[in-house]
Amino acid sequence: MILPEDSVLTVDREPQMERSEVRFEFGKNWRRFLRVLDEQRITDAEKSLCTMLDLDDLRGKSFLDVGSGSGLFSLAAMRLGATRVYSFDYDSESVACTRELKRRYFEGAEHWTVEQGSALDREYLSRLGQFDIVYSWGVLHHTGNMWQALENVIAPLRKNGRLFIAIYNDEGLKSRNWKRIKKMYSLSPVFRPPFIAFFSSYFFIKGLIVDVIFQRKNPFTRYTAHQGPRGMTYWIDLLDWLGGYPFEVAKPSEIFEFYKKRNFTLVNLKAEGRGLGCNEFVFERNG
């Protein structure tokens, strides 16, 4: 289903929580994504969720989506049979996007709640109750206090429940340089056109060389096909990457040790290797 250009999403007007000095507005980018969301993207999201969690479906499971963004994975959880889905996001536009997906596919569903909240608000998370699955893909490193957020998401996870998170890989100097770029991009609209022009050209040339010389494939496929289980288009993914600030990173070993000390067992890992993408982790909270 395509969202028309003139569609209006209902946006929360609730008082905003304390925010960092500079913050990228992810929700505006997610609005663009809803215009290209289709059945294939939803199906791919369902498959990726089941694969990482090592489950056939979510029947009998409760699902908390921390930083729901577009709402795609909350929708996937609903379609996979979750008995309760709770979605929240700090960004009011993202909340509106998630509510739009609920309206399209599960209007009136009482077991899907969507609201505004913060992963840094421990008291808020503690009030939500206990969930079988706590999911937060590519969110906690954008809060401005990643390690506190990683701690906070433990509170709503029941014993023997599973925590599925994705955190940017630490590539040292390369990551620090990107942090500076992202901050400048998010600081003022003045920086955005030249940054978009430069980096879109850079990634185009780099992709062209890889596709034509090394992989011997059509170089335009990466721009026309959606980008893996997250369902992103190339353009939306580019803007998301350039503007993703606050921006924090961690080595896989750091995340592993953090949760090991808190009585968690790693049950699945998808590592980025020597790349700037996200490492995906599924931990189980030991009873």
Write up this protein.
This protein is an alpha/beta fold. It folds into 2 domains: 26-170 and 248-285, Rossmann fold (3-Layer(aba) Sandwich), CATH 3.40.50.150; 173-243, no CATH class. Helix content is 42%, strand content 17%. The chain is built from 11 helices and 7 strands. The chain has helices at 26-34, 39-53, 72-79, 92-106, 122-127, 146-152, 173-187, 192-214, 221-224, 234-243, 252-260; strands at 62-66, 84-89, 112-116, 131-137, 157-168, 264-270, 278-285. Helix 3 (72-79) packs parallel to helix 4. The model is unreliable at 1-19 (pLDDT under 50).
Mean of residue pLDDT values: 89
Query: Element order, helices and strands?
Result: HHEHEHEHEHEHHHHHEE
Strand percent estimate: 15-25%
Determine the N-to-C terminus distance: 42 Å
CATH superfamily of the largest domain: Vaccinia Virus protein VP39
CATH topology of the largest domain: Rossmann fold
Evaluate the radius of gyration. 19 Å
User: What is the molecular shape?
Assistant: globular
Counting DSSP E segments of at least 2 residues, the number of strands comes to 7
Q: What would you call the structural class?
A: alpha/beta
Q: Give start-end ranges of low-pLDDT stretches.
A: 1-19
- Overall CATH class of the largest domain: Alpha Beta
How many domains comprise the coordinates? 2
> How does the major sheet shape up?
7 strands, mixed
Number of helices: 11
Strands in their spatial order, largest beta sheet: 3-2-1-4-5-7-6
Shape-level CATH architecture of the largest domain: 3-Layer(aba) Sandwich
Helix content: 40-55%
